[in-house]
Amino acid sequence: MTLKKYLSSYWIRSAFYSILQRFSTTLFGLINFVVLIRTLSKPQMGTWALFLIVTTIFEITKGSLLKNAHVRYVSTNADKTERAAVASASLVINVSITVLFSLLICFFSDWLSNWLHAGADLATMLKWFIPGLFGMVLFSHLEAVQQSHLDFKGVFAGYFTRQIALFLIICLHTVLKIPFSLPMLAIYQSACIFLGTFVIYLYSRPYLLYRFNPTWIWIKRIFGYGGYIFSSGIIGNVFANLDQILTARFIPDGKSVASYNAATRITQMLDIPSYAAADVLFPKVSMASIEEGSDKVRYLYERMVAALLCFTVPIGLIIVAFPKLIITIIAGARYLDAAPILQLYAIAGMLGPMQNQAANLLNSIGKSGLCFLLNTLQLSLKLGINLVCLKYIGFYGTAWGSMITGILAVAGWQMMLNKLIGTKLSGIIEHMADFYKKIYLNINNIFQKLKKAPGA
Length: 456
Description:
This protein is an all-alpha fold. It has one domain (3-439). The chain contains 17 helices and no strands. The chain has helices at 3-6, 9-37, 42-75, 80-115, 121-128, 130-148, 153-176, 182-204, 216-250, 256-291, 294-321, 323-330, 339-349, 352-364, 368-393, 397-421, 425-452.
């Protein structure tokens, strides 16, 4: 059987644009990182990393509240009036949360900057980024509009524009030898968000109803559905960056967090397919849970995770085998102390798709409360283990803690899914074997055709 038999045109089209968007975002982010890490000092890179952690946690967490609820309710509702009400309520919540976060930055960013030993730079960057936060209101709203109509092309175009614009600005600075300033980088980020918003708007126009009719019913329903997802998003994103936060707090040399960030940037490549798959899988699992039952949901989960593991396991093994070479190429010899961190991250990252997709599945089938509980337990476990490892191991303590917690978390999530919908590790392994077999057969067919070609 061919792969086409298993995948519909939706999967092919959506996965292509979603993976392309994730890949381009991470690739340009990595390229920008490669340039900046050779230009900025280690303390400056540490501050830049903390700025990205704070802003990314907010952006992703807000998206987890609004986008998932928006996609679920619009994709399963054919009435245009109701769709407009969902979109309007989502936009009201979006603006309200952004205003609240902006006020927190105004009043507490100085305290946060001092607590993380980042001097005044982190607070200054966050304040200069406030316009970008409001640009993200429209960007994230239009992203949800696109995905709720099962269209991922505009999302890719918007993110690509943001990344390529920042890349060109950084290249211009480098070529003209204009020194970087951290506040200026925050301003550039804001400007690129507005440019990306304009591009995604052009693609979203066919889906916009141009009606603003928010209702308390939909505001409450979105919070009712997305409230746990929002809380889980905060906890999940703090969990993902806890090692860097603890390192900045308890090793106040301004340099250690830069080394952790270097390893994090590289292992993010392992997460590209997983997060892209979550975007594609969410609306399909939402519909399958309503229309086809748990057997279909289990099949979709096991097959998607198997496909992702086929990618992450080989890449992870390469990273574990050659950490110093990879660190030297990406970050430079100044960051060789990050090689052991990279190895430990890669070990946990190979299994990352199992945890990421498990959380995504629970949200998509309406188990957001359970997902929040598991994320809370996971964060508490990681905090405790990391603090113990930090005390007894030192600089590499949080890396060891993250690896241990990651492995334990995967086991816990899989046990829960087995109880809820009957997922089994053996099913994932069978699908992996099936994928590898198809890859081998396809490669073998290509070589056979090349041998038979005239002149071969």
